């Protein structure tokens, strides 16, 4: 359970930092030049997580040049104050290397925020220049995910006066099911590959008396999973030799968020949020610092439920008569290159197995 919470927190933290990461790497975009020629000292990205024992915030120095963060400690100290008790603590600096070029400047503090309590975060430069944000941790809430009736429809209820729900995602951990062999002998067979597919439920949740609700639809989502596997060349068309995907487990995650999570137009548009000041609650600075509670659960659906949703674990082209089955002579490697088209016994001789940019299947998945 602890590992699950850690994964949920990391995913939600990445969501919170996405605009900041875009801002840090978008030097080629003229639309973000607003950070140059300003007296603002810092950009801040992060949130207080009431479900975590350690809090993190990422801090950027605002400079005259759009360059990656320098590989040395920045001129900043971070403090948080519990406005109910006036307790003020200093956060610890931590430098994180993402790759050889990008360094992240993080600050961390070992405490768990209290529900319905306001906190003040301050980032202070040595000359006294300060960027700050005040947030209120949302009330205590609980969630129920009903998986016991072996239905492809899974109701989810969030009980509590939570202002916002952010990053509601269902991750399908599936694997393709290649045939054990293909004919003629020597024809390559696609390996079994696990490809997690994430489906957003942000636009499917509704507020009800006392909370929120939505329904996970495994059958609807199976079409999204299947198209993802097709686009990544892991399964074939339904009439061919390797059409199946099997579901190993599911994972739900989300953030019970405070009222400050209110992007322009109610949509978290990465291109829009990359522009400094577009979505910010930071005083004398850029970025966003919120509060919330990460929630999550993972489970393995019953076999019958997965089969009802459209998944299948039994490979095709097995047994003594597979060599006489037409689909078993189709190539089990989807998206096969055109250079193999026309090779007898290896390809069907039509371009239907080849995915090109902009073809119908790719457009359908993008929708």
Query: Hey, roughly how much beta strand do the residues contain?
Result: 25-35%
Largest sheet: 8 strands, mixed
Helix-strand makeup class: alpha+beta
Helicity range: 10-25%
Count of DSSP strands: 16
What's the alpha carbon Rg, rounded to whole Å?
25 Å
What's the pLDDT, averaged over the residues?
Answer: 76
Shape summary:
elongated
The SSE string, one letter per element, is HEEEEEEEEEEEEEEHEHEHH
Spatial strand sequence of the major β-sheet: 5-6-2-1-16-15-11-12
Number of helices: 5
Number of domains as seen in the coordinates = 2
Distance between the termini: 34 Å
**Unreliably modeled segments:** 1-35, 336-367
Please characterize this protein's 3D structure.
With 367 residues, the chain is an alpha+beta fold. It has two domains: 2-140 and 256-294, no CATH class; 142-254 and 299-366, no CATH class. The chain has helices at residues 2-25, 218-231, 270-273, 303-309, 360-366, and strands spanning 42-49, 55-61, 77-82, 87-90, 92-97, 103-109, 118-124, 130-136, 142-145, 153-159, 164-177, 197-200, 206-208, 211-217, 244-257, 286-299. The strands form three sheets. Strands 5-6-2-1-16-15-11-12 form an eight-stranded mixed beta sheet, with helices on both faces. A hairpin with a 7-residue loop joins strand 9 and strand 10 (153-159). The longest helix has 24 residues, at 2-25.
């Amino acid at each position: 359970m602890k590992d699950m919470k850690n994964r949920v927190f990391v995913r939600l933290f990445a969501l919170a930092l996405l605009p900041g990461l875009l801002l840090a790497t978008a030097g080629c975009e003229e639309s973000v030049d607003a950070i140059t020629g300003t007296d603002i000292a810092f950009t801040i990205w992060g949130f207080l997580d009431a479900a975590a024992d350690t809090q993190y915030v990422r801090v950027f120095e605002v400079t005259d040049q759009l360059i990656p963060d320098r590989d040395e400690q920045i001129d900043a100290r971070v403090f948080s104050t519990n406005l109910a008790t006036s307790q003020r603590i200093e956060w610890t600096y931590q430098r994180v290397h993402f790759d050889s070029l990008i360094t992240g400047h993080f600050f961390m503090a070992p405490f768990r925020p209290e529900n319905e309590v306001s906190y003040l975060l301050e980032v202070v430069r040595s000359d006294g220049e300060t960027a700050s944000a005040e947030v209120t941790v949302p009330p205590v809430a609980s969630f129920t995910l009903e998986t016991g009736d072996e239905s492809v429809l899974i109701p989810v209820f969030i009980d509590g006066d939570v202002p916002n729900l952010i990053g509601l995602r269902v991750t399908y951990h599936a694997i393709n099911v290649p045939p054990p062999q293909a004919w003629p002998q020597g024809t390559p067979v696609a390996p079994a590959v696990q490809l997690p597919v994430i489906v957003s439920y942000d636009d499917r949740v509704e507020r009800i008396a006392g909370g929120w609700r939505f329904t996970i639809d495994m059958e609807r989502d199976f079409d999204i999973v299947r198209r993802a596997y097709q686009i990544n060349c892991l399964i074939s068309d339904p009439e061919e030799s390797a059409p199946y995907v099997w579901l190993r487990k599911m994972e739900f995650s989300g953030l019970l968020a405070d009222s400050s999570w209110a992007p322009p137009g109610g949509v978290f548009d990465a291109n829009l949020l990359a522009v400094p000041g577009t979505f910010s609650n930071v005083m004398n600075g850029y970025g966003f610092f919120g509060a919330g509670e990460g929630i999550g659960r993972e489970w393995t659906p019953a076999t019958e439920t997965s089969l009802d949703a459209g998944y299948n674990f039994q490979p095709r082209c097995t047994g003594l008569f597979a060599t006489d089955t037409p689909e078993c002579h189709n190539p089990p490697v989807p998206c096969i290159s055109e250079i193999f088209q026309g090779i007898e016994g290896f390809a069907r001789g039509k371009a239907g197995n080849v995915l090109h940019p902009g073809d119908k299947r790719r457009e359908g998945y993008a929708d």
